[in-house]
């Protein structure tokens, strides 16, 4: 009984303590709502091109491949990853990779049963719904496939034009099987930035115009021996769905054409360069001639040497330029006229062998030879340059191709004189100006 009494007392104390420790909250009218996240709706991917892809067979041995584009072919609103898979079963030669590469290789029996509709789908790969969109591929076969036809107007396969001339070709493409796939134009050789496709304009369905005008810089000669033209093929190419191809090659030759706005300036500069070079040669020959004045006058006192001087001195007397520029009119130089007359008479009376004179007077004879060369160069350069100036002073006269030939020949002659060390030419000790040139040459 005592133990039962103690157990009852302990239970009473436990319940009393439990009521004291439990806080009593004040009643409230506020009700807290539990927020539950509602997932947004997922949308299936969409095919942007719903028309079936048509692939053409020309024979049952053919293997066709088609790569679906990664962009612009489908769209997934949520940006999920998408893959491809084949739905049509029962054809061992049909393959479709997850990346969208379709391969078809069919048997003869399957080829005879064409057309065949092949179903495929694209599906989301990283969602639980795996939403899909379906598409179709139609395998067709061409019947008596014929290649496309290319018609051009004018009906010529060869053009020979100059720079800045225009070419206009009308192009029409037809296909008996009505399966034309593509048309392009290109050249057999690319010249710099020239791309024929840039000059092709589509005016109607399968109708084009090729309009082109080569500029002055199209023909760029690499050397003087190269023919002044550029030749290439303009190739027109059309393909159908069976890869039957038709090509038309048009030969085009473009000849160099001079842009006279530029060429006139260049030829004017070349003309001036020749005249200035001739003036420099005359000045240096003249200076060298003057340094030989005393030696020549001394040698003409020797009757044997006087005859050897005759030809050069006669050239001096007969040429107006040499008389004015070299002999002059002052009293000292006027004595040269007497010397010239004496040598002319000696030339008639003296029959001394020049070979013997050269053996007897080697140093003097060498000076006479040098003097003769200087006089001949003075005369030739002046006369030739005067003729050159008279012919080519006008701009229009320099447009003749003969100008270039004569300019090169005269410049070569002048350069050979300036480079001839045997003449012992005096250096040019003045600055060339237009006034210097006018002192020697007068231009109209």
Query: What is the straight-line distance between the termini?
Result: 161 Å
Give the strand content: 15-25%
Please summarize the sheet with the most strands.
4 strands, mixed
Q: Measured on Cα atoms, how large is the radius of gyration?
A: 51 Å
Across the major sheet, the strand order is 2-9-8-5
Oligomer: single chain
Mean pLDDT: 81
Q: What percent of the residues sit in helical stretches (DSSP H or I)?
A: 25-40%
Low-confidence stretches: 1-34
Global geometry = rod-shaped
Number of helices: 11
What letter string, H or E per element, gives the SSE order? HEEEEEEEHEEEEEEEEEEHHHHHHHHH
The helix-and-strand class reads alpha+beta
Strand tally, please? 17
Structure described in brief:
Residues 1-18 form the signal peptide. This protein has helices spanning 2-21, 108-112, 260-291, 293-299, 303-318, 320-327, 331-349, 354-360, 362-392, 401-418, 434-440, and strands spanning 46-47, 53-57, 63-67, 74-75, 82-86, 94-96, 101-105, 116-124, 132-141, 149-153, 158-162, 167-174, 180-187, 200-204, 207-212, 229-240, 245-255. It is of the alpha+beta class and 444 residues long.
Describe this structure in words.
- This protein has 444 residues and is an alpha+beta fold.
- Helix content is 38%, strand content 24%.
- The chain contains 11 helices and 17 strands.
- It has helices spanning 2-21, 108-112, 260-291, 293-299, 303-318, 320-327, 331-349, 354-360, 362-392, 401-418, 434-440; strands at 46-47, 53-57, 63-67, 74-75, 82-86, 94-96, 101-105, 116-124, 132-141, 149-153, 158-162, 167-174, 180-187, 200-204, 207-212, 229-240, 245-255.
- The strands form 5 sheets. Strands 2-9-8-5 form a 4-stranded mixed β-sheet, with no helix packed on it.
- Helix 5 packs across helix 7, helix 8 (354-360) packs across helix 9 (362-392) and helix 9 (362-392) packs antiparallel against helix 10.
- It is rod-shaped, with a radius of gyration of 51 Å.
- Mean pLDDT is 81; it is low at 1-34.
- Residues 1-18 form the signal peptide.
- Keywords: Signal.
């Amino acid at each position: 009984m005592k133990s039962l009494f103690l157990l009852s007392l302990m239970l009473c104390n436990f319940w009393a303590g439990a009521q004291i420790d439990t806080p009593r909250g004040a009643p409230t009218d506020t009700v807290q709502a539990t927020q539950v996240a509602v997932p947004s709706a997922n949308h299936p991917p969409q095919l942007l091109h719903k028309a079936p892809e048509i692939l053409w067979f020309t024979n049952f041995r053919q293997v066709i491949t088609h790569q679906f584009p990664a962009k612009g072919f489908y769209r997934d609103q949520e940006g999920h990853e998408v893959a491809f898979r084949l739905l049509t079963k029962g054809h061992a030669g049909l393959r479709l990779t997850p990346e969208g590469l379709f391969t078809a290789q069919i048997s003869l029996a399957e080829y005879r049963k064409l057309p065949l509709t092949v179903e495929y789908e694209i599906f989301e790969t990283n969602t639980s719904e795996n939403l899909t969109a379906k598409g179709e591929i139609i395998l067709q076969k061409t019947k008596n496939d014929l290649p496309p036809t290319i018609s051009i107007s004018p009906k010529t396969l060869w053009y020979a034009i100059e720079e800045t001339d225009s070419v206009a070709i009308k192009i029409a493409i037809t296909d008996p099987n009505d399966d034309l796939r593509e048309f392009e134009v290109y050249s057999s050789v690319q010249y710099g930035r020239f791309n024929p496709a840039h000059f092709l304009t589509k005016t109607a369905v399968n109708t084009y115009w090729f309009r082109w005008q080569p500029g002055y810089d199209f023909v760029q000669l690499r050397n003087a021996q190269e023919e002044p033209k550029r030749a290439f093929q303009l190739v027109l190419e059309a393909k159908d769905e069976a890869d039957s191809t038709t090509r038309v090659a048009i030969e085009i030759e473009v000849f160099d054409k001079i842009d006279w706005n530029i060429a006139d300036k260049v030829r004017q500069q070349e003309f001036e360069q020749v005249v200035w070079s001739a003036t420099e040669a005359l000045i240096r020959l003249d200076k060298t001639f003057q340094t030989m004045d005393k030696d020549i006058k001394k040698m003409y006192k020797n009757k044997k040497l006087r005859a050897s001087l005759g030809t050069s001195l006669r050239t001096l007397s007969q040429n107006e330029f040499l008389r004015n520029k070299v002999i002059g009119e002052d009293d000292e130089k006027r004595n040269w006229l007497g010397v010239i007359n004496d040598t002319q008479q000696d030339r008639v009376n003296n029959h001394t062998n020049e070979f013997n004179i050269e053996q007897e007077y080697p140093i003097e004879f060498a000076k006479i030879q040098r003097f003769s060369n200087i006089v001949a160069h003075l005369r030739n350069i002046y006369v030739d340059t005067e003729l050159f100036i008279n012919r080519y002073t006008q701009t229009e006269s320099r447009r003749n191709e003969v100008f270039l030939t004569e300019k090169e020949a005269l410049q070569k002659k002048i350069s050979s004189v300036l480079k001839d060390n045997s003449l012992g030419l005096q250096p040019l000790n003045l600055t060339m100006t237009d006034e210097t040139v006018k002192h020697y040459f007068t231009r109209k």
